[in-house]
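User: Predict Uronate isomerase's structure from this.
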Amino acid sequence: MTTFVTAQKTFITDDFLLRSETARILYHDYAKEMPIIDYHCHLPPDQIAADKQFENITQIWLYGDHYKWRAMRANGINERYCTGDASDWEKFEQWAITVPYTMRNPLYHWTHLELLRYFDIDILLNKDSAREIYDECSAKLKQPDFSVKNLLKRMNVKIICTTDDPTDLLSDHKSIRDSGFEIKVLPTFRPDKAMLLIDSPEEFNQYLTKLGETSGLREINTYEGLLAALQNRHDFFASMGGKLSDHGLEHIYATFDEEAAKQAFSAARNGQLPSDLQREAFKSLVLFETAKMDHAKTWTQQFHLGALRNNNARMLRELGPDTGWDSIGDYSQAQAMSKFFNKLDSTDQLAKTILYNLNPADNEVLATMTGNYNDGTIAGKMQFGSGWWYLDQKDGMERQMNALSNMGLLSRFVGMLTDSRSFLSYPRHEYFRRILCNIIGNDVENGELPNDIQWLGKLVEDISYRNASNYFGF
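Assistant:
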């Protein structure tokens, strides 16, 4: 442990978040050492392929982290220190100034867990400790043991699934595979642009040009041609080890009018904005056809539902998407979801499915929807996924697991993922496991569950690792 002049030790003890003896036993004896399957994340595969070495803590920790940027903005920090031209040290210093103000935000826990687990730094980050922590972390990051691949190995990661557009050539995935790297890095098929850009004909046509080149089909001038190109890329992703698709949608689309979908394609291909009905039908049918592709390959389809994106038009123009201007939406979810899954199930073409919810008001809606389509072919075929984005924190995780427990089977849950762009995010799995063990431990201590440590320990190990390993079939 490094000794700092400004040392003020953190609150991260061995029993952090574990409020009972049962919880402590479950975590330390069962959950703690389980490997990690990160089946959904946004890690850049090119940085894994290159085994990137970061120059300083700012580059690996603050670049692209809209969670931190939102907190800094809320704390009155100028944009120059978030996404602007301030130096890396200046950006880190402003983050350190902000950290004490993030108490009771998950960022406060994540920050200190990450400093401890990666850098062996067990002091509070604030203005006074900032320089020493910056220098210590940055010096370590320059050592070979802190390259991207070694950071992943340090966290006992076994499998990573990135998130990739159908037009991606997956050359970085091939390089990683050919290098013999012991951690599997697999692509995930995310065809959102092929659907959602129908709302912007100019961008849609640019995308079709790229998709045509990538698929080898040259020009895509028909709706059928689009589906053929997507099938081509879906097949290629499978050849590269892909076993999952992913969709980031406001809500699921379920207007099954093929003629309207074809009209939408033709209008957009000619540079015209299709009608609302035509666009809705187009999104529904493309989503439906890719879902059938998933089933044919026994893949798992994932739906991230409920984000209201790009709320601040001025900042979207200045900084682009994914820079911290998204929030929770209040969309109607149940009816279209039911219609969509029912149509797939009616021909026995409903793939394994994970639903992630961003609006906590819809937790029970999604948790009960999954129960409608479990058909006994596989345990937990339909999953209510872990707390996502704004719900990826202690209260959100507890509410998600409570809803799942009340409406389904927590014991069949495939557990945690990072959904992160940062190589320093893997302590989130520890965070999740501690919360899981604490929930179960509290129930035992309250006399609501039997004190059967062997069975409960197996349950914790399953949720932490084995359920995902069995479910995805990696």
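The first strand starts at residue 36 and ends at 38.
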